[in-house]
Amino acid sequence: MRHFLKVTDLSTAEIIELVEAAKANIGEHSDILSGKSLGMIFAKPSTRTRVSFTVGAYELGGHVMFISEREMQLGRGETLEDTAEVLSRYLDGLVIRTYSQEDLERFTAASKIPVINGLTDERHPCQALADLMTISQFHDDFTKVKVAYLGDGNNVSTSLTNICAMVGASVAVCTPPELEPPEWAIAEAQELAVKGGGSVEFTYNPQEAVADADFLYTDVWFSMGQQRVPEKSRRLEPYRIDEKLLAAAGPDCRVMHCLPAHRGEEISAGVIDGPQSIVFQQAENRLHAQKELLKKLMGDAQA
Ligand code: CP
Ligand code: NVA
């Protein structure tokens, strides 16, 4: 039985195979998950993750049950372990969106069914699968791709950096010094880049970061669960992807965003709605990539 709590729970070869299968199987309907039930426990809001997993599982013949964490006995003191043990007896797989990666790992240790991370404060691995699929729809050779991430060092930047490093791409993570990804995330990315043959650079200078980039990527300045602090916005202003920064990257550079976006904060309206933006293709790819993940983890021929 396999789980997908972080990008490295799949090998580089498995990730590339999954992305290729996702591209080849766009629009596929099958009965691979026939008779199987996928539970989805969410402690935070979601549009894409919730709907793409729901539709994806239906298109594979499975049944989906959405459960708001607030409505579970977890809030009244039932342990993660007891919950995992019980749900394992009803369901065939679970997508969990919550706060702490550590809690997710505790739950998973007690689970007897595959668990998929639908976002934690630390990681967003399903997003990274769709991101890589999107990149591969524009470039054949990951080792020749440069991705520049600008903004807050967060869950999305960590998973994006990891997956790019694993496949040998170059990544520049450009944040204000005090909003860099945590040390463990930097160390993890550097180690993966050494193994994967790519390069990871952590920098504070947006103009330098975007030079020669094939993709600019950004995410919200305030992630779910974070307080809006005006000082943080002030520090992030120079990292907004706007027309000037995109011009410095060049006319062939594409713009990515995991969404939801805040026009006028991390990205200008002109850029996200402009011709270099591929954000909706990227969002669509959540569905295609996650269907391959569900097949791999929950199908009869489980990897
Ligand atoms: N990108 C993403 O995970 O979107 P949702 O929060 O809408 O699921
Ligand atoms: N970093 C964002 C991503 C949302 C998909 C958050 O955690 O809120």
Q: Looking at the chains present, what oligomeric state does this protein adopt?
A: single chain
Instruction: Report the CATH superfamily of the largest domain.
Output: Aspartate/ornithine carbamoyltransferase
What would you report as the Rg, rounded to the nearest angstrom?
Answer: 19 Å
Task: Return the structural class.
Answer: alpha/beta
Q: Please tell me the CATH architecture of the largest domain by its name.
A: 3-Layer(aba) Sandwich
Unreliable stretches covering 5 or more consecutive residues: none
Tell me the overall shape: globular
Number of H- or I-type helical stretches: 12
First-residue to last-residue Cα separation: 8 Å
Task: Write down how many β-strands occur, each being a DSSP E stretch of 2 or more residues.
Answer: 9
Kindly state the percentage of residues in helix.
40-55%
What is the overall pLDDT average?
97
Mind telling me the CATH class of the largest domain? Alpha Beta
Order of H and E elements = HEHEHEHEHEHEHEHEHHEHH
The CATH topology of the largest domain is what? Answer: Rossmann fold
Record the SSE blueprint.
Blueprint: H1 12-24, E1 37-42, H2 48-59, E2 63-68, H3 80-88, E3 93-97, H4 101-109, E4 115-117, H5 125-136, E5 146-150, H6 155-166, E6 170-174, H7 183-196, E7 199-203, H8 206-210, E8 215-218, H9 230-236, H10 243-249, E9 254-257, H11 269-272, H12 279-298
Parallel strand pairs: 1-2, 1-3, 3-4, 5-6, 5-8, 6-7, 8-9
Helix pairs in contact: 1-5, 1-12, 2-12, 3-4, 5-6, 5-12, 6-7
Bound molecules: phosphoric acid mono(formamide)ester (CP) and norvaline.
